[in-house]
Request: fold
Amino acid sequence: MKSSSPRSPLVSLVLTLSVSLAACGVRGTSTQNIEQAQREVQLATALYMEEGRVAEAIEHLREAIELDPESYDAFTVLGTIHLGQGDVSAAEGDFRRAIDLMVEQHAAGHDIATARNYLGATLMAQSRFEEALEPITLAANDELFQTPHVAWGNLGLCYLELRRYPEAIAALVRSIELGPRFCTGYYWLGRAYFETEQLEDAEIALVRSVEVDPSCSTSPRLQNAWRLRGEVRAQLGYRDDALADFERCVELGPNSPDGRACQRQLDATP
Reply:
């Protein structure tokens, strides 16, 4: 769940963020300040997403919050940046504040679902999986959420980490139904099947995890999928296929934990 890159899979969810340009509910801030705050949020989002200028983006978001302390958009984007920088404590506070403001202003739909999913991801990054279930479940079941497959994937991962495997499998199947090109969702599903010794199903899911989208097969983030698929195929007796997977795993990064584990598998094979 950690990343330092504004283009990481988790942080790139901000691309779906709808910066609402309407003031909802009763606001104590002047219209002029609200509009200026909205411009600051838009500028901060562009600086972060398009140029990776983190410090400047945060500065503009703090200016937005000073202009309009009730700007839930500002807190949501700020939380996203903090999460991307690994400051999970600050991110959690930002997302909780954003959600509180949305509830107070009777906001609904995509914005609040986005913040809830982010909050859940932040709790997951702290291994607080039980706590993460509530906000992620709310996000996953929000009919107005534009990327529900991501929330269902996070929900499945929560259950997977809690070793609640039937619930994990159900959530992850739902995730890939909604997002049929969600590579990571297939990987997590493969893990769930592997943990429950459903090796044939695990192999099918892991094949899809690296083939369902062209970007999946070359992504270092899915190095663990190649490793796990190699381990599954080794247990199934598919020696040559397993070795090919371990070789591909090493190619994606020989010095990572997964890369070193795959190399050990290759070294141990006569």
Notes: Residues 77 and 150 are 18 Å apart (CA to CA). The chain has two domains: 1-146, 179-270. Residues 1-26 have pLDDT under 50 and may be disordered.
